[in-house]
Amino acid sequence: MVKVVLGGLVVASIPLSSKTSSVQAEELDGTTQIEQGNTIFYQVSSGDTLWNLSVRYGTSVDYIRQANHLSSDVLQLNQRLIIPKTIHTVATGDYLTVLAKKYGTTVAAIKEANNLANDTTRLGQKLIIPILIGANTNETNQPITQQPTQSHATTYSVVSGDSLSVIAKRFGTTVEALRSANHLTTDLLRIGQTIVIPSSGNNVTDTIPNPAPTQDTTTSGIKYTVVAGDSLWGIASRYHISLDEIRSSNNLETDQLKIGQTLIIPKDGEGATAPSVSPAPTTNPKSTSYTIVSGDSLSVIAKRFDTTVEQIKQVNQLTSDTIRVGQVLSIPNAQGASNGETALPPTAVNTSLQTVQKNLQTLGYYAVPTMTGSYDTATTQAIKTFQGDYGLSVTGKVDQATNTAIEHAIVKKTLIKDTKNYLGVPYQWGGTSPSGFDCSGFVYYMFNQHGIDSSRNTSAGLYKTGTAIAKNQLQPGDLVFFAVNTTGTITHVGFYMEDNQFISATSSKGIAAYTMDNSYWGKYYVGAKRVY
């Protein structure tokens, strides 16, 4: 029998009996932590990606990022991750026992995932609901897959370039259905925003495994049913026919396919032969080579070269999405790269780099009024300066890490501008609304107001997140921390603004701005973190 002690009180006695129910108590910093046989942590193994894990456990990449405060999608071998079922916003009656029963987890797991010291919940509080690794897994730490039904909706995290029409087409639904499912009053989306993808009929999402494609032989050819991941190029390659033959046989005006769509594959006399079970990928005479650099992923490369992940995997005989720096890939139908150089198709360069230039101009790095869409001297220097300021590899080229940092900087610039609208709002302990804030409540409110999903946390808890930033490297939106009552114990947090100023909720003035060298705050400054 193990007694679980919280705050000096015995709150549970748990028997040690079997492999699946064994519990061990470990004393850490004076607080008893519960470690269950069914742990909340997943240990990253070779080949794991956030996408694979999200599919395997039926969650979303965005939820995993939020639960583990990840600033990139890069995983490290043996890294420990919390795999959340969802991020739940506490409503009336949502006690931990109620939530544990509702989501099929335990109170101890929810508390551990959210660093909770007691069972108290607050309205509006966001809680990570963890999947118990082992509760539904086999001995190899891989979950027992359950065939999901297509009647379940799923969630999708908005990325750069998305619009409701693009997402609707991707998931085989309509803009109206997306608006209705998400109670949207406009078509405006934010990067990182999580939206519900409604399911109806043949709507199948990227996160739900699809049944194997079906095919029937008819007098006119082979009937083939499109599944997720299919492309016209991939189907043509599989059946050893040309794109024009498929287009002609199906009266297609575009190469866009819908999940569940039925295609006629012309018979042998008309150019098609049924594929073998594992057809060898064909060589594309228009393919070119590309050398992988840091920050690349198959989806990034596919978007860069206007192709698909499936096409790249087929051409390179890849069995997973795992790639390594320095690896050379053949890119089908590539237009923009040759001899291993990192380049974009001409139209993609113009669009994506112009967006980068505009964002850098907004941030004060790019002074040229014209968005050239090319890596000219001014653009290269602006990128290098930004990379240097944000602690990135200074290359003068926009990789995934740089692009993400620029997008985040734009969000934080808007956030900091918005903080000034709350100057004078009174201090309220535990407050998280414009009627009153405490210091961490102000951070929580501003982050979520600007699309940065953030769980309610204390200043000390926030200090354990993000990346440490030197004082001379502070950028707008970074969090600055102070130890007022006891040396080394974090008791206050605020947003760094710029020009050596920060803004926070103080007990004396409410929301107010101060200089970092203020005679009071300056002596209590401890450090800074970049959490987004």
Automatic annotation (TrEMBL):
Keywords: Cell wall biogenesis/degradation, Hydrolase, Protease, Repeat, Signal, Thiol protease. InterPro entries: LysM, LysM_dom_sf, NLP_P60_dom, Papain-like_cys_pep_sf, Peptidoglycan-bd-like, PGBD-like_sf, PGBDSf. Residues 409-532 form the NlpC/P60 domain. Pfam families: LysM (PF01476), NLPC_P60 (PF00877), PG_binding_1 (PF01471). The keyword DNA-binding does not apply. Gene3D superfamilies: endopeptidase domain like (from Nostoc punctiforme), LysM domain, PGBD-like superfamily/PGBD. Residues 40-83, 86-129, 154-197, 222-265, 288-331 form the LysM domain. Residues 268-287 are annotated as: Disordered. Residues 275-287 have a biased composition (Polar residues). PROSITE patterns: LYSM, NLPC_P60. PANTHER family: LYSM DOMAIN-CONTAINING GPI-ANCHORED PROTEIN 2 (PTHR33734), MEMBRANE-BOUND LYTIC MUREIN TRANSGLYCOSYLASE D (PTHR33734:SF22). Belongs to the peptidase C40 family. This is LysM peptidoglycan-binding domain-containing protein.
